[in-house]
Amino acid sequence: DLTGGYWRRHARGAVRFADGMQALERLGVDVLVEIGPHPVLLGMGAECVADSQAARWLPSLRRGADDWEVCLRSLGELYVAGAELARALDSRLSSAGPAAGPVAVGLSFRAQDGDYCRTFVLERPQAVAGLACRQADGWRVTALGEATAVGGELRLASTALPPAILAEVDARLEGEPLDGAGERAARDAGWR
Hints:
This protein is α+β, with helices and mostly antiparallel strands. Helices cover 37% and strands 21% of the residues. The protein has six helices and six strands, in the order ααβαβαββββαα. β1, α3 (41-48) and β2 (56-59) form a beta-alpha-beta unit. The longest helix has 25 residues, at 67-91. It is globular and about 55 Å long.
C-alpha cells in the first residue's frame, strides 16, 4: 500500500543498505548490476561484504565511457555468469551421480504447466540452492535460497534444499519426478 504513511516511513526511516548487501552475500548472489548513469552503489556495496572479490560488480553505464561498450561488457559478464548454470541444467543428469564442478543438479520433473523443472545447488563461497524451470527462451530460476547443510543425523531423502525450495517443488510438481530414463529422454529432446 503506497499510502502517506508508507512514504513517510520510507523518507524518514533508516537506510539498511549494508544489511541488504550482506543478505545478498549470504544467499550467494555473486553478480550485481547497478542500473544508473554511474556506478556509485557498486563501490559502496563492495565495502559492505566480507569478500567483494567473490562477486561480479557490473555497471550499466559509466560517466565518461562509451555507453554501448560499458553495457555490452556487463552483458557479456552476465552471460558468462549464467552460462555455467544453464549448461549444467541442459546437460547434466542427476541420475549419473555427483559431477565435478560447482553445480549439482538434483530432482528433475514435469511441472503442472508442462515445463520441465530441475533443482540445483551452486557451490559458491556460500552454497545456494534453487529451482529452475525450462521456458522457450531458456532456464528461468524460479526460487533461490541458502542451501542447508546435509549431514549429522541420518535423515531419509537428505537434501541441501531449504524448505522454501521444497515447497516450490511441491507446488509445481505434476505426477512423479523423472527417473533416469525419463531424465535422459527429456535432455535429449532439449527439455521441451
